[in-house]
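User: Predict the complex with 2-acetamido-2-deoxy-beta-D-glucopyranose.
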Amino acid sequence: MRSVQAYVLLAALLLPFTNAVPVEEARTVDDSNMVRTPAGLRLIENVHAVPEGGSVKLVGSEIHLLDETGIVIHVATNDNAKIGSSAATSTTSAADTEESGWIAFAYWFNNVTDSVIDSFTTTWEVPPVPAENHNQTIFLFSALQPVTSAAILQPVLQFGPSAAGGGSYWAVASWYVGTSATFFSSLVEVTPGQELTGVVTLASSNGSSYDYVAEFTGIPGTSITANGSDVLLTATETLETYGITTAADYPTGSTTFYDINISVTSGAPETVWSSVSDTPDGVSASVAVQGYSNAEVVINYP
Ligand SMILES: *[C@@H]1O[C@H](CO)[C@@H](O)[C@H](O)[C@H]1NC(C)=O
Ligand SMILES: *[C@@H]1O[C@H](CO)[C@@H](O)[C@H](O)[C@H]1NC(C)=O
Ligand SMILES: *[C@@H]1O[C@H](CO)[C@@H](O)[C@H](O)[C@H]1NC(C)=O
Ligand SMILES: *[C@@H]1O[C@H](CO)[C@@H](O)[C@H](O)[C@H]1NC(C)=O
Ligand SMILES: *[C@@H]1O[C@H](CO)[C@@H](O)[C@H](O)[C@H]1NC(C)=O
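Assistant: Here is the predicted structure with 2-acetamido-2-deoxy-beta-D-glucopyranose placed in the model:
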């Protein structure tokens, strides 16, 4: 019992920190084969648009991309290494503009063994457009991850370019990112001040196989289905950036992830969010309201 608890505590504490960005990322910035995704720079050939109504299905050592009729249109490898997403690295030094990742975030690890998250809902407002545009990319998302961190399922708000498209405006898409294979829904433009609700739902499960959907409520085309997944145990609210050069590359003020609701298959989880901040860059995450219902996480920009 004691060792199980120790393991769980260790896993909970280490999870977001074990995902160090490979050092190579900073050097591959000029590589035209690489594209920005919410899991860092990825080889363009491993990044796939999910057609409307299509889905992603994990099948043993493969990940299948299916069209809306269920036909397999691409087969990728499902390896089990961790997602590269660094925590709280300093980004405003011009020398390392691409080196970046999870700048400020909060997370909760569901350590209840007989109860899984069946719905994770977060509301946030589209921030103002940043005062300056240096081709930076800003991702603001809620997400669920398996304990291995080998994948992430996430409704994502982005400013700037990514593999899904984008530019000097805010837009939303949902992503399922495996260790190398990366999938995204349509990218839909949104406007500053617009209220977004990102939801990840467990549609059904059978044994150790879990079927999930991530989407923005009321924004057609932004849904992504990930079937045959491992159970997703870690919830996060995250600010992730690439290519930030000055404080003016961020929006002004703060972004509050609010009405954060987690429901589980049985009972009411004891939900204690932890936050991690990039203090050198003046970006911070703090938990304003704890709990599994109506929780709040605030991201303050420099
Ligand atoms: C902006 O950044 C993206 C991603 O690194 C890169 O592909 C693109 O060429 C850049 N555009 C400009 C104008 O620098
Ligand atoms: C994905 O899972 C959902 C829920 O179990 C199911 O309705 C849907 O048919 C599945 N899609 C595929 C392509 O397996
Ligand atoms: C659940 O999984 C088992 C074993 O893989 C399979 O035989 C069964 O058909 C599945 N049930 C459903 C409802 O998909
Ligand atoms: C979150 O849960 C609270 C309390 O159950 C409920 O009042 C609220 O409507 C929920 N919000 C969303 C966005 O689901
Ligand atoms: C599970 O996590 C909660 C916080 O989310 C913590 O208070 C509790 O002690 C943990 N339980 C175990 C068995 O580690």
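The two ends are 44 Å apart (CA to CA).
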